[in-house]
Amino acid sequence: MDDNAKPQPKHPPHRGGRRIRTIRHLHKWMSQQGRNIPGQFLQGAAYKLGSGAVTLIILWWQTRP
Fold first, then answer.
1. What mean pLDDT is predicted for residues 15-42?
2. End-to-end C-alpha distance for the chain, whole angstroms
């Protein structure tokens, strides 16, 4: 090994910019998801409630005399 050799950087410079853009994109995406959580919760609750209601109607229909 040559003593005059320059030490190589741990991360090439072109990857640093890409990493920063990726991190910014993820932060933006996470903040948008955070605003939609209550809406998604209500949508999921309504779906479960509707599914349960349909199940009860089917059970009632099958058990009628």
1. 77
2. 91
